[in-house]
Amino acid sequence: MANITKKVSWSSRTDESGAAGEGTPLLNGSEQPRLSRQDSLRGRPKEIPHNEKLLSLKYESLDYDNIENQLFLEEERRMSHMGFRCLEISRWVVCGLIGFLTGLIACFIDIVVEQLAGIKYQVVKENIERFTEFGGLSISLILWAVLNSTFVMVGAIIVAFFEPIAAGSGIPQIKCYLNGVKIPRVVRLKTLVVKVCGVICSVVGGLAVGKEGPMIHSGAVVAAGVSQGRSTSLKRDFKIFEYFRRDTEKRDFVSAGAAAGVSAAFGAPVGGVLFSLEEGASFWNQMLTWRIFFASMISTFTLNFFLSIYHKNPGDLSNPGLINFGRFESESMAYNLYEIPLFIAMGALGGLLGALFNFLNYWLTIFRIRYIHRPCLQVMEAMLVAAVTATVSFTMIYFSNDCQPLGPEHTEEYPLQLFCADGEYNSMATAFFNTPERSVRSLFHNPAGTYNPLTLGLFTLTYFFLACWTYGLAVSAGVFIPSLLIGAAWGRLCGILLASITANGSIWADPGKYALIGAGAQLGGIVRMTLSLTVILVEATGNVTYGLPIMLVLMTAKIVGDYFEEGLYDIHIKLQSVPFLHWEAPATSHWLTAREVMSSPVTCLNRIEKVGTIVDILSNTSTNHNGFPVVVQITGSDEPAKLCGLILRSQLIVLLKHKVFVELARSRLTQRKLQLKDFRDAYPRFPPIQSIHVSQDERECMMDLTEFMNATPYTVPQDTSLPRVFKLFRALGLRHLVVVDDENRVIGLVTRKDLARYHLGKHGLEELQLAQT
Amino acid sequence: MFLHQNVAFFALLFMSAYIFVSGDVVNLTASDLIDKSGLVRTSSSAAAAVVNSPVLKPAPDLLFSLNLLSNFPEDLEISEYCNELLHIFGQRYVTYVNCLVPAARPVKVCQNCFSSFESLNDTYENISSNDVGPGNVSCRDSLLRSDRLMLVFLLFNNLKDIWTKSNCDSCIIKVPHFNLTSDTLYFLATLNRTLSCFEKYQQGNRTELCTNCKTAYKGLNDLYSGMEKNQTLCIDIEDAMNMTRRLWSKNFNCSSPREETVAVIAVSSFMLFLPIIFYLSSFLHSEQKKRKLIHPKRAKSYTSLMNIQDKMS
Q: Signal peptide location in the record (chain B) (predicted)?
């Protein structure tokens, strides 16, 4: 047992050279099964097509755990009581700023979309009107398709070529970030710009998308940017909020930003907070909640304020949210006990349809990842979807015979007459020839009889497939509004049918009410959120009365949907091979111990280590390790090295950059002592090791890590079960967990990827494979 | 709903104020009882005129006999002047309603009845004005706010509602004197031209009508759209236009026919065909993205699925 580390490293070398081992017993078990496995691995190809059972190497953990090294303690000692007060106050200021800026962005998106979409629909409408009379409607169709494709092309190009991470709704990415995974480039300024422009393009381009999901991502980026007090992209440092330049603080602010985004998108401050709670922050405390709530409130009311100026009644703060579902009239609001089973049935239907949606989207996404991975192909695909969306909408409108008289108050923004009698408009056009958000509103609020059942049925069917096809394109776009729209359409259809089968049904079966329930069911069936979604819907409609039905519907939808397929966001997280830690370790995993879970052997550093060794370890591309246990070897004695701390790659890089070598310190006594500030200045983009030049002489120097390492890393004994390790990770936000034996010798290291690879599949516990993506 | 409550609330306020004031009056002049039966008679006949219904014929007599018995002291009764106003109000009210009913279909409530509404409005303004008439009395309080029902107010409000709902104000010009606006007159002229065109070709072939009256109808339609944008529409014009449109599209079947179905189908099926080609070609030609598997360093060999299952079983 004297030199286990050596033996392990030796045996790993034999793996590489392919030589057979001598059958030396290792820690446990024998060499024999290991060899057979190795052979079978070699027989398999090293490359496999992308699938959901992979973990990508490019994702790393956030350093949520505080590094309590001597520098940190020193700084804390120096800081006065007043300093801590100021920190607390600046946290509030940052949250206020986050809310304000998120609200402004939401306002900007809203206004630009409204203006551009207004112009587009006006142009197409005039064109259609002109050609209805003289013939040539196919030209209008082409014009519509081309306009759509052009907008979408712009949106797709900026996403596919400049910032692929800005694709989609951004909610899966933010969910991962809040779970503790560092998604590269997810909270950068460039991402924000691309996201905002992209979502404008895709909504104006008439895709079946909404602008709400991207708002959440935008809020998160704003939070990450504001809290740092500088922008690395713009090379500007405002020299403020320097204390917040670490993952712990940043992640708390990001959860506030996500909440502010939800709150701006739906006019739902409480819903935003609950969204952060449900989807995000695993680390939750009262003060943080309160601050997040503050950010949400500020965000909603900033949006309201600026929209009130835009709508020319400044000071009116009661115009909430990007999406405004409108208010439900008090008469149609009433529901009765006997309707509850109906609502639950609708919830089940929503769960089924949601599962179908997710299932289709899952296969589509796999196909996309495997075959449509080049940016130009992605742009082409997005353009095609836009063109087909326009074509399908046009065809639907063209062949629809559902004509309705124009209402007295002109609720329809762009009524299309087409072949209807004069003074009437095409009812299919109100659903298709409009931004999705307005269509939702008209489905909720138009009086009974505005749509006939056939129109709604066809609309639901086509929009379902369009939305399913659209989600996952390389454009930034959310799935909230399309789901609401699909649900509202079939919900309204249910309402109409109910009213027609019961003799006096028109009294209670108000189609608007059923549209709302259907919308909730469909959205719940697709995204599987419960608590936050209930509150968001209640707040967005400004109607607490529907709280119970919405809640029941969402619960049913989630239960039914989960039986068949996971939620859409979880599917996408899986497909991106993110090492995501769920709430609990997979069941039936107690028999797995830390010894089997951990990575081993571990690359350790001595407390006083040669610079050359460090540089070599860091430069080794095959092992991109981030945390290194620091061990101390009693010189002269034969005792094995014992664990005395943990140091991170980022810290080592900063040390190398500042050349904190023992010899140099001796020669230059006046050298400034390294402070925590130097580490913060390098955050979050630490330079790669290749950019740091270390001369041959310096390689021979020594580095003393005592001051900088985290002297008290979390450790577990090797027999700890997987769920215990998991709980530690999840509750403390760990990045590295050192596995030690009974003499405090390092025998392994558990990281996020080691834990995330176990998941409960159809055949019991399965293991995901690591892959380079 | 809200308005209604509001009105009721204000009425309550006014009533209580009035009761308070009149209570004082009663205390001061309680002994002053003068028969004012003549006055009462006129007022009751005015009421009968308003409710000019044959079913209620016997009522006035009964009312009259009862009225004789119950008279209030003079100061509580309304003055001669106010009575006169009430009478005029009643007459004009009847005139206006008489005008409205026949103008219900096709709607001509603005063009036919604007003058009678105007005179009714004048009377009401007289009643409700603050100015005191002869004898230093203001009729506003005594006629409008003395009771819970506030009949005069209610009656007038109903008609006023009709007036506002029909949006007649946009078709009526008030200076120099009441008349239809020139826009409205022009519209009516154009409408007449179109209708006479319809009449001319009605007997013959429908397609003939559609081609010959198209310019007239188009002109009318455009005029209407222009007025719609300027918000100078009243119910008369809207209704006339609606009827004409219905005639044109439903009766004569002159709306644009669905002619280019083939072209639209061709273009859209071409569009729908594109994604199929796209996906097929990218499936066939784009090389499949492969992931390089990495074998993590493990202490032991429990990592493969097979081994997990071995251990579990």
A: 1-23
